[in-house]
């Protein structure tokens, strides 16, 4: 049976200088996938290309190992010799491939543990493969399950808890105080890159009324235009401090701008409303003493870094639990894959048994329909029917057992004993009139006894 | 083992009481486990709180069949108070994540329930009129609402302290409970609800005392007035001067401490006859 495989490159195995050589643009994905399934021994394929990984998830054609050709294909697509990327490309097959896909979807293989983007990227890649017609039943099932596992991991563990970078930590801290940021006012002091990023995150989280003030009005205007805010003169700083809910400060000043005397005036005007001050500047813009005022919370760059470190440490702890979930789910998927291999056999077996039973039943019904029968005759006909069906069903296995070589016969008999829960020894003991010296301990004989009725019975049913 | 205390009780504790005790204890254990990082236990913890609340309610009903009114004495009222606190916590939990608050509230509810059921009952006062029953009922509901507001203030102060001192590894920070502004607002709303109820209870209490011809020189009476003044001051200060946050939370706790002292004095008086 075909099995799942993964071939790829990621931040774990290669620096960005190498990863970027193998990266695919969105508009290249569909054609690349179709080329893979046409030219290579690949039945199903999906290609995910992000800044941290380029990976092919697929299912090989029966009897073929597609990993080598896919490696060569990836290199050839970017005009690289296979040897150039041989060391940085990895591949997985079977359960290992499933485990890898589940780990990637759950962001356990991400550069920032628990980050949310990879799940969306995988879903997008799956969408492309589906549209291109290169995603089949096995790969589709694997991806659908991977999305379920990712959801389970995020729900049951702390893998995605806490912000993982300084900008989002600013938003997180503001949310600790205000909860929903919708309608909150933000004052951006200075026009540094970090404050721009933090202000953008706050804006994306629902904060409104973003006011930018800077000693240089031109820079304030430029930043305000960029983040949909309003530029205000530096002289109005105190007035805007009285109105703001969140302050992001990132100026190049050598001395603190947000001083204790200033805040003594401001907090009264604010009537002790909560104020979160994010001071990203170095040297700091905010005098730490302003944090002593009721309702004022001051966080400097070190604080933000500490929160990031604490959150990442918590995520790392959660990763152990998440890994166990992935392992368990991969095991279950493997079990499902194994059962899929025998489904056609089970179906054929059932159909054959049903055909035999139906044919014999029809014969018996025809016989019974020809004339009136007594109850005893009907009973006898049903007994014959059952015996006939049993004989016909067991005929082929019995022949196969008898005609097998001695080595094969033992193995086949053992399998039959397992499949039908037979105990030949017990059968021998229970048999009422076993012929002396008969091979009753032999499972094959046990089956033979069941399959071949006494000659009188045979006569009766034919 | 139960025989000895039972001799002292007016009505033996019902099976529901013991179920409530077990459920409260299990809920507390589950909430502490959630705070310890086993976040998957959060739904179970809430189910256990719900079970404790249900068993507690059945116990109150059970006592009703034995003609024990939940407001016939301060001792009974404590059991009812505990019931209100748990119910309020469940309601608030539907809106906010209050694991830390639950871990703080469950032991209080359990202790109040145990005190209400397993301490000597004394006798039901013969002069317990309808006015007295209404007074006790209203006072219980009022203090129950204040207790919930105080629990929120405790969480507020814990979270605020963690933020102010930048204790990013403190449980109050890691639990990611309700935001400070929501805690402050909810606590204030509860005080707005509890204050008129408590005011009515105080007025009716004074009328009941006067009806019985008792003097007002017992310490619980001025303490009840202190409670009322604290909450009245809190509402005025917030409305007029914008008091909120830490200072409001502290004043809220001071008022509740006075209310608790009143309850303790009543309880001691009933127990000592």
What tags apply to this protein structure?
heterodimer; A: 462 residues; alpha/beta; six-stranded parallel sheet; four-stranded antiparallel sheet; 18 helices; 10 strands; B: 273 residues; mainly alpha
Number of strands of chain B: 0
> What's the alpha carbon Rg of chain A, rounded to whole Å?
37 Å
* Class based on secondary structure composition and strand pairing of chain A: alpha/beta
Q: In terms of structural class, how would the helical and strand content of chain B be classed?
A: mainly alpha
> What helical percentage do the residues of chain B reach?
over 70%
Q: Identify the overall geometry of chain B.
A: flat
Largest sheet of chain B: none
What count of helical segments of chain A does DSSP give? 18
The SSE string of chain A, one letter per element, is: EHHEEHHEHHHHEHEHEHEHEEHHHHHH
Average residue pLDDT of chain A: 86
What's the shape of chain A? Answer: elongated
User: What is the share of helical residues of chain A?
Assistant: 55-70%
Write the H/E string of chain B, N to C.
HHHHHHHHHH
In round numbers, the mean pLDDT of chain B is 85
Can you count the beta strands of chain A? 10
Largest interface: A-B, 25 and 24 residues
Question: Could you state the oligomeric state of the chains shown?
Answer: heterodimer
Radius of gyration of chain B: 19 Å
Q: What's the N-to-C terminus distance of chain B?
A: 25 Å
Major sheet: arrangement of strands of chain A: 7-6-5-8-9-10
């Amino acid at each position: 049976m075909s099995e799942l495989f993964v071939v790829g490159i990621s931040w774990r195995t290669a620096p960005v200088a190498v990863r970027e050589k193998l990266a695919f643009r969105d508009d290249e994905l569909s054609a690349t996938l179709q080329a893979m399934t046409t030219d290579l021994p690949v039945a199903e394929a999906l290609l995910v290309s992000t800044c941290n990984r380029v990976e092919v998830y697929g299912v090989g054609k029966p009897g073929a190992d597609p990993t080598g050709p896919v490696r060569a294909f990836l290199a050839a697509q970017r005009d690289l010799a296979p040897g150039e990327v041989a060391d940085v490309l990895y591949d997985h097959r079977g359960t290992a491939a499933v485990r890898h896909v589940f780990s990637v979807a759950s962001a356990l293989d991400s550069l920032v543990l628990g980050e949310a983007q990879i799940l969306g990227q995988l879903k997008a890649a799956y969408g492309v493969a589906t549209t291109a017609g290169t995603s089949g039943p096995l790969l589709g099932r694997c991806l659908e399950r991977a999305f379920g596992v990712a959801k389970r991991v995020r729900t049951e563990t702390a893998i995605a808890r806490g912000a993982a970078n300084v900008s989002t930590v600013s938003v997180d801290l503001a949310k600790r105080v205000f909860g929903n940021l919708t309608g909150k006012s933000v004052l951006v002091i200075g026009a540094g890159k970090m404050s721009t990023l933090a202000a953008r995150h706050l804006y994306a989280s629902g904060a409104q009324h973003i006011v930018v003030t800077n000693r240089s009005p031109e820079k304030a205007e430029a930043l305000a235009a960029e983040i949909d805010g309003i530029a205000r003169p530096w002289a109005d700083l105190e007035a805007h401090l009285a109105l703001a809910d969140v302050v992001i400060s990132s100026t190049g000043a050598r001395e603190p701008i947000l001083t204790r005397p200033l805040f003594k005036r401001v907090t009264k005007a604010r009537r002790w409303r909560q104020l979160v001050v994010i001071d990203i500047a170095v040297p700091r813009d905010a005098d730490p003493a302003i944090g002593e005022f009721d309702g004022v919370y001051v966080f400097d760059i070190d604080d933000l870094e500490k929160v990031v470190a604490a959150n990442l440490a918590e995520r790392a702890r959660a990763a152990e639990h998440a890994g166990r979930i992935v392992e368990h789910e991969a095991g279950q998927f493997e079990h499902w894959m194994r059962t899929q291999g025998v489904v056609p056999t089970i179906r054929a077996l059932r159909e054959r048994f049903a055909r035999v039973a139906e044919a014999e039943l029809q014969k018996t019904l025809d016989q019974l329909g020809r004339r009136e029968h007594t109850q005893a005759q009907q009973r006898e006909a049903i007994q014959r029917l059952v015996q006939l069906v049993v004989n016909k069903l067991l005929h082929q296995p019995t022949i196969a057992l008898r005609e097998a070589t001695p080595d094969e016969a033992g193995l086949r008999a053992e399998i039959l004993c397992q499949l039908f829960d037979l105990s030949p020894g017990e059968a021998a003991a229970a048999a009422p009139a076993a012929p002396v010296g008969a091979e009753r301990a032999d499972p094959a004989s046990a089956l033979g006894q069941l399959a071949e009725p006494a000659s009188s019975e045979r006569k009766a049913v034919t | 083992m139960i025989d000895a205390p039972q001799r002292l009780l007016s009505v033996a504790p019902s099976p529901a009481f013991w179920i409530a005790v077990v459920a409260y204890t299990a809920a507390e254990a589950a909430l502490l486990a959630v705070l310890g990082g086993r976040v998957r236990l959060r739904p179970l913890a809430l189910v256990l709180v719900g079970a404790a609340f249900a068993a507690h309610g059945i116990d109150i009903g059970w006592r009703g069949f034995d003609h024990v009114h939940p407001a016939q004495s301060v001792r009974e009222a404590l059991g009812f108070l505990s019931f209100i606190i748990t119910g309020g916590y469940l309601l608030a939990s539907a809106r906010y994540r209050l694991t830390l608050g639950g871990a703080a509230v469950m032991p209080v509810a359990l202790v109040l329930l145990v005190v209400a059921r397993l301490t000597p009952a004394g006798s039901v006062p013969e002069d317990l009129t309808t006015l007295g029953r209404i007074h006790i009922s209203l006072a219980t509901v009022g203090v129950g609402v204040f207790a919930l507001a105080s629990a929120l203030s405790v969480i507020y102060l814990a979270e605020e302290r963690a933020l102010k001192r930048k204790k990013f590894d403190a449980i109050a920070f890691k639990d990611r409970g309700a935001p400070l502004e929501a805690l402050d607002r909810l606590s204030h709303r509860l005080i707005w609800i509890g204050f008129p109820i408590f005011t009515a209870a105080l007025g009716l209490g004074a009328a009941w005392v006067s009806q019985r011809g008792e003097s007002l020189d017992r310490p619980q009476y001025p303490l009840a007035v202190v409670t009322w003044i604290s909450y009245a001051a809190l509402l005025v200060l917030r409305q007029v001067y914008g008091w909120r946050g830490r200072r409001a939370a502290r004043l809220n706790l001071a008022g509740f401490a006075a209310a608790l002292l009143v309850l303790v004095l009543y309880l001691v008086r009933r127990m000592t006859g």
